[in-house]
Amino acid sequence: MNRHKTFIWLILSLFLISITLSGCSNQTGKGENKLAEIKHLSIGTASMGGAYFPIGQEISNLVTKYVQGIEMTPEVTGGALENPRLVSNSDVEFGLTNANLAYFAANGTSPYEGKLEVSAVASLYPSVFHIITMADSPINSISDLKGKKIAVGPAGGGTLPILEALLEEYGLKLDDIVANYLSYNDGFMQLADGNVDVALALSGYPASAVVEISTSKKIKFINIDDDKLNNIIEKYPYYSKVVVPKDVYKLGNDATAIGVPNVLIVNSKLDEQLVYNVTKAIFDHLDEFKEANATAKQINIETAPNTPIPLHPGAKKYFEERK
Fold this sequence. Notes:
Shape: globular
Structural class: alpha/beta
Distance between the termini: 82 Å
InterPro entries: TRAP_TAXI
Low-confidence stretches: 19-36
Radius of gyration: 26 Å
Oligomer: single chain
Largest sheet: 10 strands, mixed
Number of helices: 11
CATH architecture of the largest domain: 3-Layer(aba) Sandwich
Order of helices and strands: HEHEHEHEEHEHEHEHEEHHH
Protein name: TRAP transporter TAXI family solute receptor
Strand content: 15-25%
């Protein structure tokens, strides 16, 4: 009898242990599934000191906050020139670039080889091509740049294609200047110290590097002649004329400059619903975006779908629903 009871208790004990282990296994599985449900996305920006990184950071915050199961992080990259390659190669899923570079990348024209797998999510804010020198400099025109030391921005930045187009209009080439490849902050520090004659930046205004030098030094914009600027815009329709008010940088006069929209791009093969959700997270909460980032105040949702390359189907779906 005792043996029989012992056997029954043994069976019951084994049964209870098996249930407990099964429960633990299921809980572990649920935990693993929950972790597996979190999808990590990244957005290519530029250097920490530029405008792209804080824009990418706030986009990441909005996406992580409002898209369930998604965590997005901003990645420091070489900038606007490099980001289309990173997006196309799936090194990052999203990226920030200039309208002209997005067009070149999608169409496989220089500086890119072969058509890249990039689509547009939206046009964001315009960047202004700053050409800055000291107020007492004898440099007053683009034609005066020949032989001068110029901080042209980082090697992977968006200044170079615009600079080359501008120099060409004045009968010059990149080889006609002494190019110093520096970050915007470093370039303007070198200008302040007298180590370069001119510093360039492609940024929304006010650009932090330009503001910093203008607080301690008198500077001036090198203006572009109207006929030359009109020729460039006619040849390259993704550029535009921008007037920078004189009070932005304590200038003597308003400045005329080349402007180019900044575009959020995505890998063309990324899931439609995912891109829709990301687009919705950004533009349904545009007021929050603008409150967190001063540059974002220039984003206009009405012109956001006007991009130099085709919209990704997910982004297109979002903007069509708004009509």
